[in-house]
Design brief:
Blueprint lengths: L1 H17 L2 E15 L2 E18 L9 H5 L3 E12 L4 E14 L5 E10 L5 E12 L2 E11 L5 E14 L5 E10 L6 E11 L3 E11 L7 E13 L2 E12 L4 E13 L1
Antiparallel strand pairs: 1-2, 1-14, 2-3, 3-4, 4-5, 5-6, 6-7, 7-8, 8-9, 9-10, 10-11, 11-12, 12-13, 13-14
Protein backbone atom coordinates (compact mmCIF):
# COMPACT_ATOMS: atom_id res chain seq x y z
CA UNK A 1 0.00 0.00 0.00
CA UNK A 2 2.82 2.42 0.90
CA UNK A 3 4.60 1.81 -2.41
CA UNK A 4 1.33 2.33 -4.28
CA UNK A 5 0.75 5.71 -2.61
CA UNK A 6 4.31 6.83 -3.36
CA UNK A 7 3.92 5.77 -6.99
CA UNK A 8 0.62 7.63 -7.28
CA UNK A 9 2.09 10.79 -5.72
CA UNK A 10 5.11 10.68 -8.02
CA UNK A 11 2.80 10.25 -11.00
CA UNK A 12 0.78 13.33 -10.07
CA UNK A 13 3.92 15.46 -9.68
CA UNK A 14 5.41 14.12 -12.91
CA UNK A 15 2.28 14.80 -14.94
CA UNK A 16 2.11 18.38 -13.69
CA UNK A 17 5.84 18.82 -14.18
CA UNK A 18 5.56 18.33 -17.93
CA UNK A 19 2.48 20.56 -18.18
CA UNK A 20 3.14 23.90 -19.86
CA UNK A 21 0.70 25.94 -17.77
CA UNK A 22 -0.77 26.30 -14.29
CA UNK A 23 -3.70 28.15 -12.72
CA UNK A 24 -3.09 27.81 -8.97
CA UNK A 25 -0.12 28.05 -6.62
CA UNK A 26 0.25 26.88 -3.00
CA UNK A 27 3.06 28.33 -0.84
CA UNK A 28 4.18 26.99 2.55
CA UNK A 29 6.80 28.89 4.55
CA UNK A 30 8.38 28.72 7.99
CA UNK A 31 10.45 31.49 9.58
CA UNK A 32 12.15 32.07 12.91
CA UNK A 33 14.14 34.75 14.71
CA UNK A 34 15.38 35.38 18.27
CA UNK A 35 14.95 38.99 19.38
CA UNK A 36 16.50 39.58 22.77
CA UNK A 37 15.13 36.89 25.07
CA UNK A 38 12.10 36.17 22.87
CA UNK A 39 11.98 33.38 20.29
CA UNK A 40 9.57 34.07 17.42
CA UNK A 41 8.57 31.51 14.81
CA UNK A 42 5.76 31.47 12.28
CA UNK A 43 4.12 29.14 9.78
CA UNK A 44 2.44 30.60 6.73
CA UNK A 45 0.23 29.05 4.06
CA UNK A 46 -0.80 30.98 0.96
CA UNK A 47 -3.11 29.97 -1.87
CA UNK A 48 -3.27 31.93 -5.12
CA UNK A 49 -5.73 31.29 -7.96
CA UNK A 50 -5.19 32.80 -11.41
CA UNK A 51 -8.21 33.77 -13.48
CA UNK A 52 -6.59 32.30 -16.61
CA UNK A 53 -3.87 29.67 -17.17
CA UNK A 54 -0.27 30.90 -16.85
CA UNK A 55 2.08 29.50 -19.48
CA UNK A 56 5.55 28.27 -18.51
CA UNK A 57 6.81 28.20 -22.11
CA UNK A 58 9.52 30.56 -23.32
CA UNK A 59 12.68 31.88 -21.69
CA UNK A 60 11.09 34.01 -18.94
CA UNK A 61 11.95 32.83 -15.38
CA UNK A 62 9.26 30.56 -13.96
CA UNK A 63 8.88 32.83 -10.92
CA UNK A 64 8.08 35.81 -13.18
CA UNK A 65 5.72 34.09 -15.65
CA UNK A 66 2.49 35.55 -14.22
CA UNK A 67 3.99 39.06 -13.99
CA UNK A 68 5.19 39.07 -17.60
CA UNK A 69 1.89 37.65 -18.88
CA UNK A 70 -0.11 40.09 -16.70
CA UNK A 71 -2.33 37.39 -15.24
CA UNK A 72 -4.95 38.52 -12.72
CA UNK A 73 -5.33 36.51 -9.52
CA UNK A 74 -6.99 36.11 -6.12
CA UNK A 75 -5.11 35.08 -2.98
CA UNK A 76 -5.62 34.13 0.67
CA UNK A 77 -2.95 33.77 3.37
CA UNK A 78 -2.98 32.27 6.88
CA UNK A 79 -0.16 32.79 9.40
CA UNK A 80 0.34 31.10 12.78
CA UNK A 81 2.92 32.82 15.00
CA UNK A 82 4.41 31.75 18.34
CA UNK A 83 6.30 33.99 20.78
CA UNK A 84 8.31 32.16 23.45
CA UNK A 85 9.83 34.21 26.28
CA UNK A 86 11.02 31.28 28.38
CA UNK A 87 8.41 31.01 31.12
CA UNK A 88 5.74 32.62 28.97
CA UNK A 89 4.40 31.64 25.55
CA UNK A 90 1.83 33.27 23.27
CA UNK A 91 0.19 32.20 20.02
CA UNK A 92 -1.71 34.23 17.48
CA UNK A 93 -3.20 33.83 14.03
CA UNK A 94 -3.32 36.33 11.19
CA UNK A 95 -4.87 36.11 7.75
CA UNK A 96 -5.26 38.15 4.62
CA UNK A 97 -7.27 38.17 1.40
CA UNK A 98 -6.61 40.11 -1.77
CA UNK A 99 -6.10 40.12 -5.48
CA UNK A 100 -4.28 41.62 -8.45
CA UNK A 101 -5.77 42.90 -11.70
CA UNK A 102 -3.69 43.33 -14.85
CA UNK A 103 -4.22 42.45 -18.49
CA UNK A 104 -2.25 42.41 -21.74
CA UNK A 105 -4.91 44.52 -23.48
CA UNK A 106 -3.90 47.63 -21.50
CA UNK A 107 -1.15 48.97 -19.22
CA UNK A 108 -3.15 49.61 -16.03
CA UNK A 109 -2.66 47.71 -12.77
CA UNK A 110 -4.63 47.44 -9.52
CA UNK A 111 -4.24 45.37 -6.36
CA UNK A 112 -5.96 45.18 -2.97
CA UNK A 113 -5.05 43.31 0.21
CA UNK A 114 -6.72 43.13 3.64
CA UNK A 115 -4.73 41.89 6.65
CA UNK A 116 -6.30 40.95 10.00
CA UNK A 117 -5.08 39.59 13.35
CA UNK A 118 -7.36 37.30 15.34
CA UNK A 119 -8.78 38.76 18.59
CA UNK A 120 -7.60 42.24 17.65
CA UNK A 121 -9.22 45.39 16.31
CA UNK A 122 -6.11 46.10 14.26
CA UNK A 123 -6.10 45.66 10.49
CA UNK A 124 -4.39 47.03 7.41
CA UNK A 125 -5.91 47.54 3.97
CA UNK A 126 -3.52 48.12 1.07
CA UNK A 127 -4.51 49.49 -2.33
CA UNK A 128 -2.09 49.75 -5.24
CA UNK A 129 -2.83 51.57 -8.49
CA UNK A 130 -0.19 51.36 -11.17
CA UNK A 131 0.89 51.55 -14.77
CA UNK A 132 3.16 49.41 -16.95
CA UNK A 133 5.52 51.91 -18.58
CA UNK A 134 7.07 48.97 -20.39
CA UNK A 135 5.96 45.37 -20.68
CA UNK A 136 8.43 44.45 -17.92
CA UNK A 137 8.33 47.65 -15.83
CA UNK A 138 5.55 48.45 -13.35
CA UNK A 139 5.19 51.54 -11.13
CA UNK A 140 2.45 51.84 -8.49
CA UNK A 141 1.06 54.43 -6.08
CA UNK A 142 0.27 52.78 -2.76
CA UNK A 143 -2.37 53.66 -0.14
CA UNK A 144 -2.45 52.05 3.32
CA UNK A 145 -5.50 52.34 5.58
CA UNK A 146 -4.56 51.15 9.08
CA UNK A 147 -6.36 50.66 12.36
CA UNK A 148 -4.56 49.93 15.63
CA UNK A 149 -5.76 47.97 18.68
CA UNK A 150 -7.13 51.17 20.24
CA UNK A 151 -9.34 51.81 17.21
CA UNK A 152 -7.30 54.72 15.85
CA UNK A 153 -7.19 54.87 12.05
CA UNK A 154 -4.68 56.42 9.68
CA UNK A 155 -3.98 56.84 5.98
CA UNK A 156 -0.42 56.32 4.78
CA UNK A 157 1.02 56.68 1.30
CA UNK A 158 3.86 55.18 -0.66
CA UNK A 159 5.10 54.05 -4.05
CA UNK A 160 6.74 50.94 -5.46
CA UNK A 161 8.25 49.66 -8.68
CA UNK A 162 9.40 46.44 -10.35
CA UNK A 163 11.52 45.95 -13.46
CA UNK A 164 12.59 42.67 -15.08
CA UNK A 165 15.75 43.11 -17.13
CA UNK A 166 16.47 40.66 -19.96
CA UNK A 167 20.25 40.28 -20.27
CA UNK A 168 19.87 38.54 -23.66
CA UNK A 169 21.97 35.64 -22.38
CA UNK A 170 19.13 33.53 -21.00
CA UNK A 171 19.57 35.26 -17.63
CA UNK A 172 17.42 38.01 -16.08
CA UNK A 173 17.59 40.51 -13.21
CA UNK A 174 14.48 41.60 -11.29
CA UNK A 175 14.85 44.99 -9.59
CA UNK A 176 12.35 46.21 -6.97
CA UNK A 177 12.02 49.28 -4.79
CA UNK A 178 9.51 51.10 -2.64
CA UNK A 179 8.80 53.61 0.11
CA UNK A 180 6.09 54.25 2.69
CA UNK A 181 5.49 57.38 4.75
CA UNK A 182 4.17 56.76 8.28
CA UNK A 183 1.25 58.90 9.44
CA UNK A 184 2.14 59.14 13.15
CA UNK A 185 5.79 60.16 12.74
CA UNK A 186 8.29 61.86 10.47
CA UNK A 187 9.71 58.46 9.52
CA UNK A 188 9.60 56.80 6.12
CA UNK A 189 10.45 53.19 5.29
CA UNK A 190 12.41 52.31 2.15
CA UNK A 191 13.25 49.03 0.46
CA UNK A 192 15.33 47.98 -2.54
CA UNK A 193 16.13 44.56 -3.92
CA UNK A 194 17.57 42.64 -6.85
CA UNK A 195 17.25 38.98 -7.85
CA UNK A 196 19.51 37.41 -10.47
CA UNK A 197 17.91 34.59 -12.48
CA UNK A 198 20.28 31.95 -13.79
CA UNK A 199 18.00 30.86 -16.61
CA UNK A 200 14.39 29.93 -15.79
CA UNK A 201 14.76 27.90 -12.62
CA UNK A 202 17.25 29.39 -10.16
CA UNK A 203 17.52 32.86 -8.62
CA UNK A 204 19.73 34.43 -5.97
CA UNK A 205 18.86 37.82 -4.56
CA UNK A 206 19.62 40.53 -2.03
CA UNK A 207 17.18 42.88 -0.31
CA UNK A 208 17.77 45.90 1.93
CA UNK A 209 15.25 47.95 3.91
CA UNK A 210 15.57 50.86 6.31
CA UNK A 211 13.43 53.30 8.30
CA UNK A 212 14.57 56.88 8.73
CA UNK A 213 13.71 60.57 8.69
CA UNK A 214 15.81 60.99 5.54
CA UNK A 215 16.59 58.82 2.54
CA UNK A 216 20.26 58.40 3.42
CA UNK A 217 19.80 57.91 7.16
CA UNK A 218 19.05 54.54 8.75
CA UNK A 219 17.57 54.55 12.25
CA UNK A 220 16.57 50.88 11.88
CA UNK A 221 17.49 48.67 8.95
CA UNK A 222 18.09 45.13 7.76
CA UNK A 223 19.02 43.03 4.78
CA UNK A 224 18.44 39.51 3.50
CA UNK A 225 20.08 37.06 1.12
CA UNK A 226 17.56 34.82 -0.61
CA UNK A 227 17.30 32.09 -3.20
CA UNK A 228 14.52 30.32 -5.09
CA UNK A 229 14.93 27.13 -7.12
CA UNK A 230 12.35 25.40 -9.30
CA UNK A 231 13.36 21.77 -8.91
CA UNK A 232 10.55 20.96 -11.36
CA UNK A 233 8.51 23.40 -13.48
CA UNK A 234 5.73 23.15 -10.88
CA UNK A 235 7.74 22.65 -7.66
CA UNK A 236 10.06 25.21 -6.04
CA UNK A 237 12.01 25.47 -2.79
CA UNK A 238 13.28 28.72 -1.28
CA UNK A 239 15.31 30.00 1.64
CA UNK A 240 16.55 33.29 3.05
CA UNK A 241 18.81 34.59 5.79
CA UNK A 242 18.47 38.15 7.03
CA UNK A 243 19.99 40.53 9.56
CA UNK A 244 17.81 42.92 11.55
CA UNK A 245 19.36 46.02 13.11
CA UNK A 246 17.24 47.89 15.68
CA UNK A 247 19.30 50.88 16.73
CA UNK A 248 16.71 52.28 19.13
CA UNK A 249 16.92 49.17 21.33
CA UNK A 250 20.49 48.16 20.40
CA UNK A 251 19.54 44.81 18.86
CA UNK A 252 21.23 42.96 16.02
CA UNK A 253 19.54 39.66 15.17
CA UNK A 254 19.45 37.03 12.40
CA UNK A 255 16.20 35.82 10.82
CA UNK A 256 15.77 32.60 8.83
CA UNK A 257 13.09 31.39 6.43
CA UNK A 258 12.51 28.23 4.36
CA UNK A 259 9.62 27.33 2.11
CA UNK A 260 8.20 25.51 -0.88
CA UNK A 261 5.73 26.27 -3.69
CA UNK A 262 3.59 23.91 -5.74
CA UNK A 263 1.77 24.86 -8.94
CA UNK A 264 -1.10 23.01 -10.57
Amino acid sequence: MKSYLLTALFSVISVNAVASSYQAQTDLNYGWVDIGNVDINAWQAKQRFFLAPVSTDGAVPLAEAAFMQRQSSLAATFTRATLDAGNQEAHNNAWSVGGEYMDRSHNYYAAVDMEFINNSKAYEATTKLGYFFQNDWLVTADIYHTKDELGRTALEYGASTKKLLDLNTGDFIAITGGLRNYDDSTLTSYNVGADYYFGKNLSVGLGYHWVSAGVFQNDNDGFEVRSNWYVLPNLAVNASVGRIFLDDVSLDETAYQIGASYRF
